[in-house]
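Hey, can you fold this one?
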Amino acid sequence: MAENLRKAYSADLKMRQEGLEEQEPEGIALDVHEIVKPGVVYSDEVIEVTAFAVPHGTWKHAYGYRFETPDRVIVVSGDTAPSEAIIAACNGCDVLVHEVYSDAVWSQIKDPARDYHGTFHTSTTQLAAIAAKAKPKKLVLYHQLHMGVPDEFLVGEITALWDGEVISGVDLGSY
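Sure. Predicted structure:
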């Protein structure tokens, strides 16, 4: 995939190396590490990143990630249905970043999308239950499947069942 992306952006890469930007070749080098099993996927003196398996419908491999530094733990759910693995990975983490869809709207869907969302993703009700067990200090929603409702609605569905801090994340936001 990475090599095909390089091909797709070949004109841009050429311009950056040979044009006014004069980008050095090492500045656009690829260093791909495929994740093929759970475990530590990166570690240095500042951070350790651990992949853990999560269920994503019929996908053979899907992962969540735990980022641990000396002063903070952040867990990202990945694209997932509810999972005990997330609870274990968080276990009182500072921030749990989790995908979500509206349970109230989902319960009204009567087409194949209902089965899809129920198998591949996590509802607000399910996420509130996960948060109650995982006990994150902060819950940040991402990959929100709004289904026609605003962020406040998703947050409200969760806070009606869990009294922790919930933020609906936005691209480039800081939490």
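Residues 1-32 form one domain. Let me know if you want another pass with a different chain boundary.
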